[in-house]
């Protein structure tokens, strides 16, 4: 499972080192040659998508390592976009804000956030016991996911396409796949948002630990989708939903575009990691996600948000089962 780790580490390190290009562009070129700056920046972002994608597509990495590399690529893309937007486009009139040091960039690359700031709230000291505990829990969740896939998925589907397929087999596959998918989603959610991000936050003395909220108590679909992963939802709201809503004045269009792009990103990671394209997640985000978000959260008057009855919260627990 980890035999490909050195190669994936090299790819990840190369992507992180490449962020010196937008840092240099913003610091030394943005004010002097705007057209050149935008052209080079657009080319850089395109290469940051194409080159790692080509490398991963032509490499036979394990499933876990492929997922890690694809997620790292998307993470770097989101961070670079935030870095350039916050410094160049949003704070273009402030010379002081343009003086982003190399330390600011490096800290941002490793900080558990996707929105760039020159300074973040910091704790006074590092609790190394907590750091070790978080990373050990993360490793534990990885092994649990690996064991689950190896024991149930590989064994149960080894004969797929060979043995006769009937209604009993279909029902059994749906039940097994649903339970496994739900378990893997919760393990991944806990490992990433609770263990991995908190471990890095503690090690970097990053004080804002609000990586998720109580999505399981949500009574509104809009709040459910935001609370599940606040790190990503904050980025989507800041750089997709809010700008589109401000330009168009239509919440439904902003929500649709946000769900569509989020679906494309999820589908890209899935296709790059597994080696095949099946646009289930894209349809899922546009169908179940955007559809229910629009139906329950954006009434015709566009003012008051509808609240789901308490007994329908079961839908929020069924959704991970449905996603699988």
Automatic annotation (TrEMBL):
Active site, per annotation: 266
UniProt subcellular location: Endoplasmic reticulum membrane
Keyword Transmembrane attached: yes
Domain of life of the organism encoding this protein: Eukaryota
Classification via Pfam families: MBOAT (PF03062)
Transmembrane intervals: 6-26, 35-57, 100-116, 128-149, 169-193, 252-270, 276-296
GO molecular function, one term: O-acyltransferase activity
Gene Ontology CC annotations of this record: endoplasmic reticulum membrane
Membrane topology: Multi-pass membrane protein
Gene Ontology terms describing biological process: cholesterol metabolic process
Annotated keywords: Acyltransferase, Endoplasmic reticulum, Membrane, Transferase, Transmembrane, Transmembrane helix
Keyword Membrane: yes
Family according to the record: Belongs to the membrane-bound acyltransferase family. Sterol o-acyltransferase subfamily.
PANTHER family: O-ACYLTRANSFERASE (PTHR10408:SF8), STEROL O-ACYLTRANSFERASE (PTHR10408)
Protein name (record): Sterol O-acyltransferase 1-like protein
């Amino acid at each position: 499972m980890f035999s490909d780790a050195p190669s994936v580490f090299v790819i990840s390190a190369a992507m992180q080192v490449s962020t010196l290009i937008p840092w240099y562009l913003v610091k030394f070129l943005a004010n002097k040659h705007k057209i050149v700056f935008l052209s080079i920046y657009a080319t850089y972002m395109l290469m940051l998508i194409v080159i790692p994608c080509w490398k991963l597509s032509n490499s036979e990495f394990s499933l876990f390592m492929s997922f890690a590399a694809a997620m790292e690529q998307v993470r770097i893309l989101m961070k670079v976009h935030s870095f350039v937007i916050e410094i160049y486009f949003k704070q273009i009139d402030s010379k002081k804000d343009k003086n982003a040091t190399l330390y600011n960039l490096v800290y941002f690359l490793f900080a558990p956030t996707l929105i760039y700031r020159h300074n973040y709230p910091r704790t006074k000291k590092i609790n190394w016991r907590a750091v070790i505990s978080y990373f050990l829990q993360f490793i534990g969740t990885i092994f649990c996911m690996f064991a689950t896939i190896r024991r149930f998925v590989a064994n149960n589907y080894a004969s797929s396409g060979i043995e006769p397929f009937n209604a009993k087999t279909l029902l059994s596959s749906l039940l097994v796949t649903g339970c496994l998918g739900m378990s893997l989603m919760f393990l991944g959610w806990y490992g990433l948002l609770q263990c991995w991000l908190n471990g890095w936050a503690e090690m970097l003395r990053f004080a804002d630990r609000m990586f998720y909220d109580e999505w399981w108590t949500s009574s509104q679909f809009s709040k459910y989708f935001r609370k599940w992963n606040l790190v990503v939802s904050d980025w989507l709201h800041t750089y997709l939903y809010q700008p589109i809503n401000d330009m168009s004045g239509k919440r439904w269009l902003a929500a649709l575009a946000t769900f569509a792009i989020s679906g494309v990103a999820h589908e890209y990671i899935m296709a790059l990691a597994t080696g095949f394209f099946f646009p289930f997640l894209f349809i899922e985000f546009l169908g179940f996600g955007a559809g229910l978000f629009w139906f329950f959260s954006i009434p015709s008057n566009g003012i008051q948000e509808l609240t789901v009855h308490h007994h329908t919260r079961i839908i929020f627990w069924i959704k991970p089962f449905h996603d699988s």
